[in-house]
Amino acid sequence: MTKKKKYQPLDAMDYPRFEGIRTFMRLPHIEVLDDADFAIIGAPFDTGGTFRVGARFGPAGIRDNSLLLRPYNPAQQIGIFDYCSGIDYGDIPVVPGYIQESHKKIEVGAKAIFDSRTIPIFMGGDHSVSLPILRAIKQKFGPVALIHFDAHCDLWHGYFNKKDTHGTPFRRALEENLIDSARSSQIGLRGPLYDEGDHQMPTEAGLMAITGPELHRMGIDKAIRKIKARVGRGPAYLTFDIDFVDPAYAPGTGTPEAGGFTGYDSISLVRGLTDIDFIGYDMVEVMPVYDPANVTCLLAANIIYEFISLIALQKRGNSN
Question: Which domains does the chain have, with CATH numbers?
């Protein structure tokens, strides 16, 4: 049997799940990256939101609803902590109300993670936090393939004559050459738009777009094949806006759009993204205040669990 890694969750047979300080999956809260294969990191900034706000409480809500996650993933047939050592790193400090200052702090904090061998999983916060993370990525990896699950393309030029909101991060990322558009995909786009030009933005940016209606028609397996064929070889970053999910299954978000996907659809799509060189992940736009039964936070925690499982699969493959 594979020797267990250094950092792993508390044993539920020793400490009941309702006990202890709230960390993701009851992992140890450690701010040193030595011996950590992955780290859970909060980026609780939501001043980039243009409609509902409250995603600053997303990391806390996700942590609270991760307590029932267990170390063996039967769907992927892997014991995560047979191959991975994981920590909850805590939150990156931000400056409430000040987007540029907060983005700089997130970039600096993210760079420290990427400079280590640890794979980060960030919890937003609104989707603007992906921009400083991608800036940090470029400093080590160069332009990266983006796999982006979202109801919205987040490619708008600006809002009220301001360049940075949760609807603009990937426009800025393309302008700054942070994304390799030829290897990148946006999946699940749907909902009313201002005009036909908005609908064309992903294609004009050189991204592969799979709209929500197209994904419903083609099915999960075909979509996975298309995403994997597009990304090819090289580093990739996965960003998951929880509004990809239909509001019937994830009401706790800032810009809900009808016609989305189930929790099972979402988990299955992530599970299928094996054999990709992921160097990081994020989960954004989770708002506990609009999540009365905690179903959004619970689903977000389970999707992050699938991110961790992909890391474990990578580690197992590299050890063979």
Answer: 24-319 (3.40.800.10)
